[in-house]
Amino acid sequence: MKNILTVENVYKNYGSFTALNNVSIAVPEGSIFGLLGPNGAGKTSLIRIINQITLPDSGHIFLDGEKLKQNHIKDIGYLPEERGLYKSMKVGEQALYLAQLKGMSKIEAKKKLLYWFDKFEIRDWWNKKIQELSKGMAQKVQFIVTVMHEPKLLIFDEPFSGFDPINANLIKDEILKLRDDGASIIFSTHRMESVEEMCDYIALINKSNKILDGKLSDIKHQFKENKFEVGLLSTNKEDLYNQIKSKFSIENSVSNSFNADLRVLVSLKEHETSTDLIRFLNSKAQITHFTEIIPSANDIFLKAVATNE
Amino acid sequence: MNKLKLIIKREFYAKVKNKSFIVMTVLSPLLMVGLFALIIFLNEKNSEEVRTIAFVDESHEFSTTFTDSNTTKYIDLTALGIEGAKDKAKEFYYGLLYIPKSDSLSVLSKGISFYSKDVPSLNLLSSIENKLEKKIRNLKIEQLHIDVSKIKATETVVNIATENFIGEKSSKIGSVLRMAAGGGFGYLIFMFIIIYGTSVMRSVIEEKTSRIIEIIISSVKPFELMLGKITGNALAGILQFIIWMISAGLLLYVITYIFGPEVAQSSNTMPITPDVVQQVQETTGNNLQLVLQEIKNLPILTMFFSFIIYFLGGYLIYSSIYAAIGAAVDSETDTQQFMMPVLMPLMIAIYVGFSVIENPHGPIALGFSLFPLTSPIVMLMRIPFGVPWWQIVVSMLLLVITFIAIVWFAAKIYRVGILMYGKKPTYKELYKWLKY
After folding, report:
1. Parallel, antiparallel, or unpaired: how do β-strands A184-188 and B169-170 relate?
2. Which residues of A touch B207 (CB under 8 A)?
3. ipTM of this complex
4. Cβ atoms within 10 Å of A15's Cβ, excluding its own
5. Kindly report the CA angle at B354 between B351 and B356, in degrees rounded to 5?
6. A231 forms bridges with which residues in the sheet?
7. Cβ separation of B219 and A73 shorter than 8 Å?
8. CB spacing of A83 vs B218 below 8 angstroms
């Protein structure tokens, strides 16, 4: 698959502080790429380098196969985490200005803006000043400003912060739609549930180093620990529990259920397979529930960072 | 380049459409002219008050000396005697002038006294003294049997014509004119740098605190943004100055038209006698010619072009420093520690500038007119007095080199600073930013 963005061996130092240490990532075209990491890991530094706000000390960046250059500004849309607009400038005027800075013509920009303003039903804000709008309203304008020039690559840094659940959902749907329309998206966030929901690929940066990257499903596979949650119908739960415990290692019983179910979390050793487990359980009682525990993005995040430290 | 134009346009409109800009632009000339009109008005009101002065002239020589004017009336109370006149004057009049009787005019002149409730106005007193002196002088001339008309014929007015060794004429008025031109230009640059430099700084801080900065510089280079900001603000400033000059000129014209020549006279509290008028007319007539001559003598072309160059150089140097300061801090309250070093050279330049006018070619004048942080002000003040061309060239060269260096440094600090939030940076940190 073609990569829309390739970052190769990027280093960035601020004085004696290393912000990025030999970081490489590849963002496949048409995907949503989650850029994850604790605060101060170097995500923003990397995003700023991709946006040509700062230059890397060494390393290369390619956008759509070409070495990153000034002209690529129009191909990137960036929604920074700390966002804001000119407070005393009118919404429409401001959006037009920012669109023109991205290289759009005034007529083209106006057409696009009206399309988006209608879509978000905010056309009557055109002549309002930003300071008259609420924070959430201003965020909507900001979102439009980010996407209106139809860039190939969109970078969202914590796009949902400041939105109520309804509007967050609206934005989420728009982001997914943009992806379906062919844009590639870099998505930097701490909200793991949205990573789970939206990202196709992730990269994890911790303490200036990339410690993990790849397809989310692959990583999950890589991080799963052969754990299974099983449910068994039994009249004598204690006896059954002990029987299983003698054969397999039980993490914990999931719940002291008030129905007839025994629920336990079984952790398989390397030589054991799920078939062995099923076979054994089947011979003891009726199986009502059998699920492999796949680690959540949150678990992966915590585990990867903990291992790295 | 296209983006730079967009930024300049936005900065210009953001500044010009701002309410405080409009208010300042419209109100300032009105305020200035209003103040001027108020002063004139008060002056007129003040002089409308008529003072009545009583006098007791025991010598009987001065009965015709005191003629009533618009502001002063005289009443002869000689008949009441000094004590009676004192009682009456205390009740009804502004003051009482007492002229004793004496055979000798010299003794008489020492014996004159003035009684009043309050301390008398200096103008009034000197006006009375003038009258007395003139009368006594004429009396003395008569006593000596000299023909008054012959004395008149000996009166001469001397105006020393000054000229430098290569034959250029100069005059005291010329010096005043040079001072005014140099001082005016220097002061204009000083004001402009402070007002619009601060405005650039505010605009940078605004972008930083509103956090739009990151969006903007993901579209344009920080240097372009800084340059656009500085240029846009300068254009707004130039527009404001032009509006001020035109409207102030118009309003002044209207005011003088309404008040007419009285404006000129009302400020003149000296008593105007026909021969004084004639004298004044003569000298002003001469002076007008001289002034025109002097204006012609001024190095106008040099002044004009150097004004433009020093204006641009000075403004660009200082406003890029202001931009860097704005980028380094989070709020305007944090700017104090960085403002001092910026204001210092400007203040020094103004103070030195005004002493330079006294001695335009001294070593201090030379030094500060070469030093690039003060040269835009000091050199402009010197230029009307004639400066050797090599000094101008060296000064401008230094200005341009400094300009490039400072803009380079400022751009570096700006580039890093606009993305730094949180703590107030120290000078040491600013130095570190230069190496990022």
Report:
1. unpaired
2. 86
3. 0.80
4. 10
5. 105
6. A263, A289
7. yes
8. no
**Burial of B287 from C-beta contacts in 10 A (0-12 / 13-18 / 19+):** middle
The torsion of the CA quartet A43, A47, A53, A56, rounded to 10 degrees, works out to: 70
CA A142 to chain centre: 20
Closest CA to B368 of B386, B385, B342, B350: B350
Q: In the sheet where A76-79 sits, what is the strand order?
A: A76-79, A153-157, A184-188, A32-36, A201-206, A209-215
**Full strand arrangement of the beta sheet holding B113-116:** B72-76, B51-57, B95-99, B113-116
Residues A111-116: contacts with CB within 8 Å, 24+ apart? A112/A148, A112/A149, A112/A150, A113/A144, A113/A148, A116/A144, A116/A147, A116/A148
For residues A172, A177, A180, A185, the Cα torsion angle rounded to the nearest 10 degrees is -50
Give the one of B6, B432, B436 whose C-beta lies nearest to A97's C-beta: B6
Please give the Cα distance from B97 to B113 (Å, whole number).
6
Confidence band (pLDDT; 50, 70, 90) for B264? Answer: very low
Confidence of residue B271 (pLDDT cuts 50, 70, 90): very low
Does the pTM exceed 0.90? no
Instruction: Say if CB A61 and CB A53 are below 8 A apart.
Output: no
For chain A, count helices (H), then strands (E).
10, 14
Distance CA B130, CA B95 (A): 17
**Nearest neighbour of B10 by CB, restricted to A52, A70, A97:** A97
Q: C-alpha angle B9/A68/B215, rounded to 5°? A: 35
Q: How many CB atoms lie within 10 A of CB A119?
A: 12
> What token pair was written down for B395?
């000064």
Report the sign of the C-alpha dihedral through residues B209, B210, B214, B218, in that order. Answer: negative
Q: How far is CA A260 from CA A249, A284, A285, A286, A294, in A?
A: 22, 15, 12, 11, 26
* CB neighbour list of residue B59: distance below 8 Å, 6 or more residues apart: B99, B100, B101, B102, B108
Cβ(B189)–Cβ(B377) under 8 Å? yes
Give residue B404's identity as a one-letter amino acid code.
I
- A15·B421 Cβ contact <8 A: no
> % helix / strand / coil in chain A, to the nearest 5?
40, 30, 30
How far apart CA A274 and CA A85 sit, in angstroms, is 56
Q: Tokens for B266? A: 């009302």
Q: What is the pLDDT of residues B114-165, one digit of tens each?
A: 888 878 778 888 888 888 888 888 888 888 888 777 777 888 878 776 666 6
Q: What is the rounded distance in angstroms from the CA atom of residue A190 to the CA atom of residue A304?
A: 15
